[in-house]
């Protein structure tokens, strides 16, 4: 065993369990060496020359014996995992030969991978579930809805999708701030919704105040309508907490699929949400079943193409900015540009009200170019006023990224015209876009990164997370979704998620931004978990150029 001495000497310096077995006939494995950690595990005073299968329980040996046979017969390392009551172990078996006695030996190295498996399970959970409520998220709902569509085609059965918006929840949240009461109301509301239907269903959280209820294999549309009425009635009942009474209501949009025609997951989601918006606009605390006429009504209210094009021509769009603060240096790290529309008849519109129509009509492309050029032009002005080493952050739509060369050339053109260095431009792309288009986006992100442009992922961790984004794409920054700061009842879980994401980012040498900082408690939580790049109304809400400039001038410590 002269050439095994090195293994033995090395083994006593490892944190892993190391055992060497001599291989004999009839697949018997004799202990010939254990390092200190392995000896403690087997709790044997003198295990040397004892046989492995005589020591292990029969049930355990039955599960792992084939791995030892495989390691000997194939002469290749074999790895297997054992799940114990409170731990998970990974064992690697390697066949080694002794030049002295000509016998075969098995080197078994066992390491505790409990933490790794726990993190893996947690990340897997976050890919498919809402971290606050543990309900399925939109990503998982889409998968289940796709299966329901196939099921309806095969069985000619009816699928119903309800989009439930809880009216009044945000008002309670704004009034009470971040309290356990808000969490309790949310949990109780979910319980009431779940209790309104007993058949095959999936309730998913698809927004801060929005839920989607998927009901499959029903025989008639009235079943979903009855469910919607029951939900509305249940949420009308007062909510009691800490001797106070709270009132909520709901707006519900319903759409159906009977398998007779082709449709898509996105189409059904859009139909249910559009029906819900019709309820909110006209009735509230009611339900509406989707009809094709609704889309025409929406388009009639705002001449989508004409209004946006006219607004571009007449310069009715404007930008507001919100700083990202580096709490280590008390400096402004970046300024995020946020587009607004000064509509001549409706008033000020925010992106949620016009970005989707702009994407559908393709007008997001000229609008996006205008936003980028305007933001870069303003950054140059601030730089001339003494705001140095600051980035400008601009949100990017998936439609803009579809034509890779056009988008890349546009970015190059704007940088050249405004004189902004690529390193000072940060393009922010939502996590959902990455998840749906990761292969196509890899090309454009690589090109932009090579140019020097920074790439940021927005709303990270909201439930769709894929580690592949961080593993394969040249990302510079991740922005942790603000929902992790809002729910106090799950504070420990939220801190764990924030800590997990920020730790992963640090290991990958990425910057982490937490958005939505609104008060001292959230600031303290973020700093406690090691996050120092922060954004939110606690510092400054989205504001005009003049207001941001005034803020910069007042906060002179940040601009020096």
Structure, explained:
- It is a single chain.
- The protein has 560 residues and is an alpha/beta fold.
- The chain has 22 helices and 21 strands.
- Strands 13-14-16-17-18-19-20-21 form an eight-stranded mixed barrel, surrounded by four helices. A five-stranded antiparallel beta sheet has the order 2-1-5-4-3, with helices on both faces. It has a five-stranded mixed beta sheet with strand order 7-8-6-11-12, with helices on both faces.
- Strand 3 and strand 4 form a beta hairpin.
- Helix 16 (404-418) crosses helix 17 (431-451).
- Residues 556-560 have low confidence and may be disordered.
Q: Looking at the structure, what is the overall shape? A: globular
- Number of self-contained structural domains: 3
Strand order across the largest sheet: 13-14-16-17-18-19-20-21
Q: From the alpha carbons, calculate the radius of gyration and give it in angstroms.
A: 29 Å
Look at the structure and give the CATH class of the largest domain.
Answer: Alpha Beta
Low-confidence stretches: 556-560
How far the N terminus sits from the C terminus, by CA atoms, comes to: 68 Å
- Which sheet architecture does the biggest sheet show? 8 strands, mixed, barrel
% residues in beta strands: 15-25%
Structural class: alpha/beta
Summarize the amount of helix as a percent range.
40-55%
And the CATH topology of the largest domain? TIM Barrel
Mean pLDDT, all residues: 83
């Amino acid at each position: 065993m002269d050439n095994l001495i090195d293994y033995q000497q090395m083994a006593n310096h490892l944190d892993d369990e190391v055992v060497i077995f001599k291989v004999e006939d009839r697949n018997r494995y004799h202990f010939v060496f254990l390092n200190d950690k392995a000896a403690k595990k087997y709790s044997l005073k003198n295990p040397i020359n004892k046989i492995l299968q005589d020591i292990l329980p029969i049930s355990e040996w039955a599960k792992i014996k084939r791995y030892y046979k495989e390691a000997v017969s194939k002469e290749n390392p074999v790895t297997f995992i054992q799940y114990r009551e409170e731990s998970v172990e990974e064992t690697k078996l390697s066949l080694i030969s002794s030049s002295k006695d000509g016998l075969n030996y098995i080197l078994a190295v066992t390491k505790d991978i409990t933490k790794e498996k726990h993190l893996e399970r947690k990340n897997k959970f976050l890919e498919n579930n809402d971290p606050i409520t543990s309900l399925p998220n939109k990503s998982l709902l889409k998968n289940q809805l796709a299966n329901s569509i196939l099921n309806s085609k095969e069985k000619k059965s009816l699928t119903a999708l309800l989009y439930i918006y809880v009216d009044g929840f945000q008002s309670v949240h704004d009034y009470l701030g971040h309290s356990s009461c808000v969490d309790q109301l949310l949990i109780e509301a979910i319980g009431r919704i779940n209790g309104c239907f007993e058949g095959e269903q999936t309730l998913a959280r698809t927004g801060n105040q929005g839920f989607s209820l998927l009901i499959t294999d029903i025989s008639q549309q009235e079943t979903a309508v009855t469910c919607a009425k029951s939900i509305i009635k249940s949420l009308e009942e007062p909510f009691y907490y800490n001797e106070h009474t709270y009132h909520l209501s709901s707006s519900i949009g319903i759409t159906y699929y009977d398998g007779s025609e082709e449709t898509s997951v996105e189409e059904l989601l859009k139909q249910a949400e559009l029906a819900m918006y019709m309820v909110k606009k006209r009735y509230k605390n009611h339900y509406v079943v989707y009809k094709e006429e609704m889309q025409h009504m929406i388009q009639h209210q705002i001449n989508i193409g004409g209004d946006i094009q006219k607004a571009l021509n007449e310069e009715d769009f404007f930008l507001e900015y919100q700083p990202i603060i580096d709490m280590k240096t008390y400096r402004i790290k970046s300024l995020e540009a946020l587009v607004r529309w000064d509509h001549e008849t409706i008033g000020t519109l925010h992106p949620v009200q016009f970005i989707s129509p702009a994407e559908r009509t393709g007008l997001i492309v000229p609008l996006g170019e205008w936003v980028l050029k305007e933001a870069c032009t303003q950054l140059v002005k601030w730089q001339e006023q003494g705001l140095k080493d600051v980035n400008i952050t601009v949100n990017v739509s998936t439609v803009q990224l579809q034509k890779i060369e056009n988008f890349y050339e546009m970015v190059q053109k704007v940088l050249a015209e405004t004189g902004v260095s690529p390193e000072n431009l940060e393009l922010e792309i939502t996590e959902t876009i990455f998840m749906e288009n990761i292969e196509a986006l890899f090309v454009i992100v690589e090109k932009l990164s090579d140019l020097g442009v920074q790439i940021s992922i927005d709303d990270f961790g909201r439930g769709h997370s894929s580690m592949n984004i961080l593993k394969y794409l040249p990302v510079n920054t991740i922005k942790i979704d603000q929902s992790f700061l809002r729910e106090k009842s799950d504070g420990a879980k939220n801190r764990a998620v924030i800590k997990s994401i920020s730790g992963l980012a640090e290991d990958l040498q990425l910057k982490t931004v937490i958005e939505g900082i609104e008060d001292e408690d959230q600031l303290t939580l973020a700093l406690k978990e090691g996050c120092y790049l922060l954004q939110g109304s606690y510092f400054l809400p989205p504001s005009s150029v003049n207001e941001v400039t005034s803020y910069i001038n007042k906060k002179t410590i940040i601009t020096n």
